[in-house]
Design a protein that fits this description.
The protein contains six helices and seven strands. By secondary structure, it is an alpha+beta fold. Among the domains are: about 120 residues, Ribonuclease H-like superfamily/Ribonuclease H (Nucleotidyltransferase, domain 5), CATH 3.30.420.10; about 60 residues, no CATH class. It has a five-stranded antiparallel β-sheet, with no helix packed on it. It has a two-stranded parallel sheet with strand order 1-2. The protein is elongated, with a radius of gyration of 30 Å. It starts with 14 loop residues before the first helix and ends with a helix.
Length: about 270
């Protein structure tokens, strides 16, 4: 089915509580029973408490062999796909890793509403709920937003009614938007906002970063170590050309010859003459 759920853990010991919650969610919301639980050799799974929880619910456990990720290939590929989306959104918006969980949740939210080939170009949301998802509310992650502040949260009656914030996706269980307040660093959930998809407050000049800096410039390369580098030569090839000449033992390959096209007389000019 490919529909994805995710739980953000503060510590690995929280895994058992979230497992109980997911088992109850699958049963109550989708009338589904979990028969087998496949996982890797993580310490959050390989403990007596988690194994007893599976046995109490009649769930079989399958553990992949260490360093054999292909035995749990579907989950591993999904993790890489989601992480690629997370890093792309975060780097393009010049965000730090302190709010990675919001980009992770938003990436999964988008994945469940994206058409997939092995579902015959259905979305996982549609395959699970038998209805097409509404995506009209989606906005560009981490773009600027001018958020309306209710009267109860304003400092006083003379305070502005709107404040510039960063859009962080859709909060679970709310019919609204999740924002990051720049002034106090708190999370704000609101329903009314004007989004500016061209403004990213964490990037220089507020413009989205189109590439990632790799650090210092690459060192100059001397492709012919026996020859001194000519500092006036931008290509740093010294006095020797970067390709062999025709008199060398290995001449460069010439482009394929093109057949000559015979000249065709201009019939219009002949008739006019």
């Amino acid at each position: 089915m490919s529909h994805t759920w995710s739980f953000n853990l503060k510590k690995k010991s929280d895994m058992i509580d979230h497992a109980w919650q997911f088992i109850a969610y699958a049963k109550n919301q989708h009338n589904a029973l979990i028969s087998t639980w496949r996982f890797d050799g993580g310490t959050e799974f390989l403990n007596d408490a988690f194994k007893n929880m599976l046995h109490d619910n009649g769930i079989l456990s399958e553990t992949s062999v260490p360093y054999m990720h292909q035995q749990n290939g579907h989950a591993e590929c999904l993790n890489r796909t989601i992480m690629d989306k997370v890093q792309s959104m975060r780097f393009h918006a010049c965000l730090t890793d302190t709010i990675w969980e919001f980009s992770w949740d938003h990436a999964i939210h988008l994945y469940n509403r994206t058409s997939i080939s092995h579902l015959k170009w259905q979305t996982p949301f549609e395959a699970l709920r038998n209805e097409k998802p509404d995506v009209s509310y989606l906005r560009i992650f981490s773009c600027g937003a001018y958020v309306f502040l209710p009267e109860d949260v304003r400092a006083n009656k003379l305070s502005p009614k709107f404040e510039t914030m960063i859009y962080l996706g859709q909060p679970a269980g709310y019919k609204g938007y999740c924002f990051y307040c720049i002034t106090n660093g708190q999370i704000f959930i609101g329903t009314t906002a004007v989004f500016d998809k061209t403004y990213f407050s964490r990037c220089p000049d507020g413009k989205q970063q189109l590439f990632t800096e790799l650090g210092d410039k690459l060192p100059t390369e001397n492709r012919y170590p026996d020859d001194p580098i000519d500092q006036s030569d931008d290509n740093n090839f010294g006095n020797q050309l970067p390709f062999p000449t025709e008199n060398d033992d290995h001449p460069p390959s010439s482009p394929p010859s093109q057949p000559e096209v015979p000249d065709v007389p201009d019939l219009d000019s002949e008739h006019s003459s």
